Amino acid sequence: MDNSTSLNTFGTQIRKSPFFNATLQSGCTCFSVYNHMYIPRSFGDPVQNYWNLINHAILCDVSVERQVQISGPDASEFVQKLTPRNLKDFKIGQCKYVLILSDEGGIINDPVLLRLDSNKYWLSLADSDVLLWAKGVKINSGLDVNITEPDVSPLQLQGPKSKIIMKTVFGNWIDNIKYYHHVKFDFGNIPLVISRTGWSSEFGYEIFLQDQKFGDQLWNKIMEIGKPLGLFPGHTSTIRRIEGAMLSYIADMDISNNPFELGLDKLVDLTMDFNFIGKAALIKIKNNGIKNKLCGFEIDGEPLNNPNDEHIEILYNSNNVGYITSSVFSPRLEKNIAMGYLPVQYSDLGFVANATFEGKIRNIKVVSKPFYDPNKNIAKGLET
After folding, report:
1. Is 32 contained in some domain?
2. CA-CA distance, 223 to 144, in Å (whole number)?
3. 9 pLDDT band (50/70/90 cuts)?
4. Residues 43 and 172 placed together within one structural domain of the fold
5. Where is the domain boundary, 183, 217, 242?
6. What is the pLDDT of residue 149?
7. Alpha helix locations (H) across the chain?
């Protein structure tokens, strides 16, 4: 979600969201492509967008989080086959962050999974073609499931003022939605699913529109009511997501990476009595140990002007030992921060190496991540 480009360079093969026209009218000036769709990437200064997010609230078109719907008599078994996270106690109305793995244990996607009904699930996707993967898995699974892409387009409303805005728009019952839970709701004649989730590291909600013809109407109504309460049109914040060490698929991980390198052991249950895809490979990786590790870094020198748009080599004693995946200047922390990979033997806190940013060699130091709010109390609603 971090690479921007001009709108007029895209062909007709890139889909527009139901909110596309509304975002243009709200001042979007730049889009990039994610999951074969346009995603708004600029409403002006990205630093101002960041301050709007952490001090007020922003409404973002994240329809690019395409849904894969898995339904049918064997839906629960099929979903467990896709992920190493134990779903035994997964209840209707809950959401869970999960991993989708290849048979080699590599990460294909890291969606949020919603359980809509006893035999109906949505995978809310990062940037990869899980619809095709799931259809391929079904062929030889012997399971009775239907796999489709439903007419579902999410918005996210994030920031400290999001609760009062949501309550004013939809009603005081919004208070009842727990973190990583969702409810179905008809907003007049507009069918929605509303969840206490979001890709921002801030307190917030996602609003899943289930009928694309209401896109402009829904966006404009939320903005009309929310603007006097501190709502701004916005886009997903690279600054805030790196502060929160939120992983961006392709940027920070891909099919060549396994969960243990990323420190996502909690999303893997190798003890459960179920042969999910990639289990044998993960057992082998766990037994042999990982070779590389995703680390947090502080970067010295003056503020970086822009996030990096390609991986940056990490050098130690003039040898290439790893690479930076995501870097940015944090205005709140007043320092440059980054994530990237190092061999395990170089990954201890305090390890110093160097890398070239914007034409200058800088020292980088391994530090703990997340860089801000490490227990995610803000997103959980413990500081709102």
Report:
1. yes
2. 42
3. low
4. yes
5. 242
6. 98
7. 20-25, 46-55, 75-82, 130-139, 162-170, 215-226, 238-243, 279-288, 377-380
Hey, CA dihedral for 160, 96, 20, 172, is it positive or negative? Answer: negative
Average the pLDDT over 311-328 and give the result. Answer: 98
**pLDDT above 90 coverage of the chain, percent:** 96
Contact yes or no for 325/341 (Cβ under 8 A)? yes
Q: What 3-state class would DSSP assign to 335?
A: strand
Lookup result for tokens 């709108």: 7
What is the DSSP pairing of strand 67-71 with strand 120-124? antiparallel
Parent domain of 110:
67-148
Q: How far apart are CA 98 and CA 114, in angstroms?
A: 10
Residues 157 and 144 in one domain: no
Do 160 and 180 lie in one domain? The reply is: yes
Q: The tokens 């130091």 sit on which residue?
A: 365
Does residue 139 register a pLDDT over 50? yes
Report how many domains make up the chain. Answer: 2
Q: How far apart are CA 193 and CA 361, in angstroms?
A: 48
- What's the pLDDT score for residue 257? 98
Nearest to 309 by CA among 237, 250, 354: 250
Q: Which of 242, 273, 295 is the last residue of a domain?
A: 242
> Model's pTM, two decimal places?
0.95
pLDDT for res 6: 45
Residues 140 and 93 in one domain: yes
- Give the whole-number percent of the chain exceeding pLDDT 70: 97
Average per-residue pLDDT for the chain:
96
25 has a pLDDT exceeding 80 = yes
Q: What is the CA radius of gyration of the chain?
A: 21
The closest alpha carbon to 239, from 148, 303, 183, 190, belongs to 303
Closest Cα to residue 203, out of 166, 151, 154?
166
